[in-house]
Amino acid sequence: MVGEVVRQVIDLPPVRPTVTDHVAYRCRCECGTVTVADLPPEAKAPVIANELVFDKILAVLTEGPASPALRSALYDVAAELPGATLDGHVTDSLGRSGTAVEYPSIADSDEIRLLIDPTTGQLLEEQGIANRNSGVPVGTIIYQTTYVREGPTHQVGALPTTTAAG
Q: Are 137 and 121 in contact (CB under 8 A)?
């Protein structure tokens, strides 16, 4: 034997968040005193930050290496967030067909739409869509990022020579 060649594939496990809503009731007795039940110490945030979950999903899909299994799990989580909507018949700016996951912004200024290739799980495009509070006509694309090619590169500004799928 002359030596060996080693290659690694980094595969993150699927993400499946568990959400538990804790409710503390307020009661007023006849004397006028208001009491509130105790919440568990881990229930610190007043509202679940679904937009932050969506933003983290978007960051993994656009900035990090994500296997097809991880991408699939992240799209499932995004689609199940309260307020998310799915559209199975969309076309990106390059004419590619896909499925859209749309999520409203907490700031109520726009909605974020992810267009996904249902065959490969690749993110095709990210769009910001105007809603009623954006100051432009509802449905107007405020911004978009189109993903043409994905893969490693050896130089800043160079295009990848391969895609993550092959």
A: no
pTM, two decimal places: 0.63
Residue 59: in which H helix or E strand, if any?
helix 50-63
- 38-90 pLDDT, tens digit per residue, is 888 877 665 556 778 888 888 888 887 788 888 888 888 888 887 788 888 89
CA distance 51 to 54: 5
C-alpha angle 53/135/97, rounded to 5°? Answer: 55
| Distance between CA atoms of residues 31 and 157, nearest Å | 71
- Nearest partner of 54 among 91, 101, 94, 99, judged by Cα: 101
20: CB partners within 8 A, 6+ apart: none
**DSSP code of 83?**
T
